[in-house]
Amino acid sequence: MHQDQILVKGKTVDNKTRCEHYHSERDIVAIKFYCCDTYYPCFLCHQETADHDVTVWPKENYDKKAVLCGNCRFELTIQEYLTAHSLCPYCHASYNDGCKLHYHLYFDENKIVK
């Protein structure tokens, strides 16, 4: 699938993956949820629109592409995202540094490598 055609579900408000919950200039990341293999802008969007509970990404899958930069639409592996220091390694757009506070909602919090 061409990266421009990647569907991001949830309560999006623009084409850079911002949503009703997180829509600052730097909120430009969507995460593919392990439980449904579907991109959402945030945990709350998944919680409000999906018909199932969240399952976080296990460490052994951190090599999978599961993070979408809303600026350049490049898919990052989880490990690339977690070690990118809140910057897209491809287009150098800044991500919201506060997202680190929510990693446990998406990734196995006991196994995050920084």
Model description:
The chain is of the alpha+beta class. The protein has one domain (3-108). 11% of the residues lie in helices and 14% in strands. It contains 2 helices and 4 strands; from the N terminus they run ββαββα. It has helices spanning 43-49, 78-82; strands at 29-33, 38-40, 65-69, 75-77. It has a 4-stranded antiparallel β-sheet. A hairpin with a 4-residue loop joins strand 1 (29-33) and strand 2. The chain starts with 28 loop residues before the first strand and ends in a 32-residue tail after the last helix. The model has no long low-confidence stretch (mean pLDDT 92).
Sheet having the most strands: 4 strands, antiparallel
Average pLDDT number: 92
Radius of gyration: 13 Å
Number of helices: 2
DSSP strand content? 5-15%
Helix content: 10-25%
Record the strand order, biggest sheet.
2-1-3-4
What's the order of the H and E elements?
EEHEEH
Please write out the topology:
Elements: E1 29-33, E2 38-40, H1 43-49, E3 65-69, E4 75-77, H2 78-82
Top keywords for this entry?
globular; 2 helices; 114 residues; alpha+beta; single chain; 4 strands
How would you summarize this macromolecular structure in one to three sentences?
With 114 residues, the chain is of the alpha+beta class. It contains two helices and four strands, in the order ββαββα.
